[in-house]
Amino acid sequence: MTDRALVVVRAGALTTVQDRGRPGHAHLGVPRSGALDGTAAALVNRLVGNPPQAAVLETTVNGCALRPRSAVTVAVGGAPCPVTVDGRPVAWGAPVRVPAGALLEVGTVVSGVRSYVAVSGGITVEPVLGSRSTDLLSGLGPAPLADGMVLPLGTPTRLHARVDVAPQPAPPAELVLRVTLGPRDDWFTPEALRTFMSRTYRVSPASNRIGLRTEGPALERALPGELPSEGMVLGAIQVPPDGRPVVFLADHPTTGGYPVIAVVRPQDLPAAAQSAPGTPVRFMRTRRR
Question: Is residue 185 over pLDDT 60?
Answer without folding.
Answer: yes
